Amino acid sequence: MHPQPPRRTTHAYGTPKNLLVYDRWGSFGRPVVLLHGLFYDRTIWWPVAAELTGPCTVIAVDLPGHGQSAARGDNDLDALARDLAVLVRDLELHRAPVLVGQGEGALLAEAFAAAYATRAVLTFDEPAEAPPESPEQHQAGADLAGVPAAYRQFAVPRGDRRLRDSYRCWFSKGVPARVAKRPGFPHLRAPARFAATLSDLI
């Protein structure tokens, strides 16, 4: 008989002005930090997190202004990486995390890895040189053909155009040269396979 995966619990970290809300699965092992892209929220990671097993603690964070995390006037990339590092440190797991970034979350994962001890970084659906104009534009550019119907609810961008402006500073730092692709959501196409890939990085 296989053990049940850890149950999801929701937590809040920080002060009301810089509040970060996150879901957590597990309480020991290596931290695996899951970061969503612009206009999404932490729920985009639920199918993958439910599949991850083994010696890890999974953290899916709502970026500022998304989901239940507080909006900030300044979403400075380095400051947010610092806040994320403090959150990971306070988990008291004493291991360098694995960072996984989807969309614009890839920029945060890379900024974190450049400044703090990190076991591995995995990014996908990396952004273009400018953020999308709106959630509707993001949705129109997404490739959902291979995402099972049951998981498409997790790939619906939310929020408003003001979010785009609050994250514009991420792009002024210069996005690494890469070919932007239509968001394909490989973690939702095959959550168990994606979780197995992550397990290899732990």
Automatic annotation (TrEMBL):
GO molecular function: catalytic activity
Source taxonomy: Bacteria, Bacillati, Actinomycetota, Actinomycetes, Micromonosporales
Domain AB hydrolase-1 stretches: 32-179
Pfam families: Abhydrolase_6 (PF12697)
Database matches in InterPro entries: AB_hydrolase_1 (IPR000073), AB_hydrolase_fold (IPR029058), AB_hydrolase_sf (IPR050266)
Name of the molecule in the record: Pimeloyl-ACP methyl ester carboxylesterase
Entries under PANTHER family matching the protein: MONOACYLGLYCEROL LIPASE (PTHR43798)
